[in-house]
Amino acid sequence: MSSNEHWNQICNKSSTYFEECSINFANNLLNIDINYFNIYDKTNQEDNEKISLSNKIDEYSLQTSMTNNSSAESIPLNLICGVCGAPAHGYNFDQITCESCRAFFRRNALKNMYQFECRFGGTCVINMHNRRQCTHCRLKKCFAINMRKDWIRTEEERRLRQLKKLYKQKKQLNELSLDEQQLIANLPLVVRKKKGTKSLITRQVTQELVVSKIESIYPIDTFAIHRNLSNDDRILLNNIMNAYKLGADQADYSHINRCTSSTTLVQFLNDETAIYESLICFYKQIPEFKKSNLADQVLLIKSNVLYPSYSLSDLRFWSELYSCGTQYIPTGSSEHSLSLVPGR
Amino acid sequence: MSSNEHWNQICNKSSTYFEECSINFANNLLNIDINYFNIYDKTNQEDNEKISLSNKIDEYSLQTSMTNNSSAESIPLNLICGVCGAPAHGYNFDQITCESCRAFFRRNALKNMYQFECRFGGTCVINMHNRRQCTHCRLKKCFAINMRKDWIRTEEERRLRQLKKLYKQKKQLNELSLDEQQLIANLPLVVRKKKGTKSLITRQVTQELVVSKIESIYPIDTFAIHRNLSNDDRILLNNIMNAYKLGADQADYSHINRCTSSTTLVQFLNDETAIYESLICFYKQIPEFKKSNLADQVLLIKSNVLYPSYSLSDLRFWSELYSCGTQYIPTGSSEHSLSLVPGR
DNA sequence: GCCAGTTCATTCAGTTCA
DNA sequence: TGAACTGAATGAACTGGC
Ligand SMILES: [Zn+2]
Ligand SMILES: [Zn+2]
Ligand SMILES: [Zn+2]
Ligand SMILES: [Zn+2]
């Protein structure tokens, strides 16, 4: 056994242990579907002859199509829809379904199932031909084979994508000016439908904010502030966000530009002044910050500066630390001499 | 957000502080090599996405791969991806990963993590089959095993490379136009010297300190202690690990179970006692902790608890605040009255 | 040979419209 | 309702420097 393998074994023993902990923990608390591989579940087994028969056919054809890979192009693997038995092309929402059942699920899965009523007491057996006769039973079947409605993208996600897309297009056309970035950032927002409310589209300017981070490849990162924030919280957050945005825009990056290729990271990081200045610029924009007393203000700034004790050498990494640091809001203590060794 | 999701996120938070402590602590001290136990046997390694269209197919591929098992040419070593567990070929960005996770990391590591949202509160356990279901958790896992985004080449370098390549081709054909020559001439020809390259070569020797800000959702799966750790460090790390393990086992999770669907996040987090107890339980197991003086011990515990004072209901934002806070390990100060309101 | 980057066919979301 | 779209993400298979 090589020393490499030996190492693997040692690590692995402890690994499984930890993994068990986490898995148990997760299973107990959360809704994780670990039956990912159980394609045919109970309900499917209870299905009628035809469908289970076609499942058998499916298995067979799958196997054969694997052995002789040269099968038809249009329906590559002879898959059949788990809902209606029609030919399928692949997975949709975690299960093999046909196009129509996919669309059907997309449209209806998020609605309340019991708004559809079955005229036959919910006993319909869905197949390719009768699938549109009973919405209730078709949807029931969808859930029975474990199609996952949580894989339908939320309104929020969709909006985010649209925004990204828009941004890309813009960027392609010409380099974005700052004004244009702002424009995109302030786009009127579509807010997800409220549960139990009939309100469709709400326009709320402060509901979602676009913060552009220094190093981000996509300057636009959208944060959808949850709708049930209190107004005060929303305003506060808004202020923080805007301050950040302004801070990022206005901050003096000359200390970065001062660096030459021979400037070491440590030198760079030790240039505390600039970091302080940026932080102050950031905080200054927040009215709530001004209201706090001076000592606390100083503390806030101070404790958000990390002193470089390591010879970290990557700026991007540091910038992340740094932006992370700005989120830590400490209180009360008088002096900090940061060090990472606890038992000093 | 459904109350279910809401819960997931809450629960997730409670599990996080343990990992925060141990991971950050360890990361700060050591360059850790994390690897996984190969819970799949060798046959499973030949599993692949296309083939595993169904359970049956999995079985089939298992059987077939058992018969012609000796084809170990494509995967020379028994390496497995530290992110998803798939067969791996070697190191990518400082960790052993599969091809897909490599590409994934390349694509996403430089983006802001919070543009990806987890539908399950960031608790997904990534494996070979579900890896593309949750970008957020997959990326998180990448960082958790210490894949290094600073080894991704910069835009600058990329541009230069492309140009060089183009230049070579053109030169071969003697087709360089004047414009193109000009273009090339105007490019910064100084290649930023990548320290990553050096590290690659001297990976075994250099003991680089890696400070990761990444909050890992997973309890540490395993720590493969790096070969060139000092004995002392190794023992210390061991102790921390064991403490974590014990802490996770023994910790009283009743405060989680106490929560009903009407418990607010703030109420939950304000249940300080339980958090303290768990933390103490964790630290108690580490001999080095006992050796430190009492004030430091108290400080260490305290500084790893943040009190919620805002009724933020956007948990994503909150969780970022929170996770950043737990990384802050202060020393030497006598008393902290932690609170998130600066101007108190 | 290793490990960066690069390319491109494929999969599976959403979208459109007859 | 569902066939036919669009497009982002993925990952296998490349290239190329050292
Ligand atoms: Zn169908
Ligand atoms: Zn019916
Ligand atoms: Zn992987
Ligand atoms: Zn997730």
UniProtKB/TrEMBL annotation, chains A, B:
<keyword id="KW-0238">DNA-binding</keyword>
<keyword id="KW-0804">Transcription</keyword>
<feature type="domain" description="Nuclear receptor">
    <location>
        <begin position="78"/>
        <end position="154"/>
    </location>
</feature>
<keyword id="KW-0479">Metal-binding</keyword>
<dbReference type="InterPro" id="IPR035500">
    <property type="entry name" value="NHR-like_dom_sf"/>
</dbReference>
<dbReference type="Pfam" id="PF00105">
    <property type="entry name" value="zf-C4"/>
</dbReference>
<keyword id="KW-0805">Transcription regulation</keyword>
<dbReference type="GO" id="GO:0030154">
    <property type="term" value="P:cell differentiation"/>
</dbReference>
<dbReference type="GO" id="GO:0008270">
    <property type="term" value="F:zinc ion binding"/>
</dbReference>
<dbReference type="GO" id="GO:0000978">
    <property type="term" value="F:RNA polymerase II cis-regulatory region sequence-specific DNA binding"/>
</dbReference>
<dbReference type="GO" id="GO:0045944">
    <property type="term" value="P:positive regulation of transcription by RNA polymerase II"/>
</dbReference>
<dbReference type="InterPro" id="IPR050234">
    <property type="entry name" value="Nuclear_hormone_rcpt_NR1"/>
</dbReference>
<dbReference type="InterPro" id="IPR013088">
    <property type="entry name" value="Znf_NHR/GATA"/>
</dbReference>
<dbReference type="GO" id="GO:0000122">
    <property type="term" value="P:negative regulation of transcription by RNA polymerase II"/>
</dbReference>
<dbReference type="GO" id="GO:0004879">
    <property type="term" value="F:nuclear receptor activity"/>
</dbReference>
<protein>
    <recommendedName>
        <fullName>Nuclear receptor domain-containing protein</fullName>
    </recommendedName>
</protein>
<keyword id="KW-0539">Nucleus</keyword>
<keyword id="KW-0863">Zinc-finger</keyword>
<keyword id="KW-0675">Receptor</keyword>
<dbReference type="InterPro" id="IPR001628">
    <property type="entry name" value="Znf_hrmn_rcpt"/>
</dbReference>
<keyword id="KW-0862">Zinc</keyword>
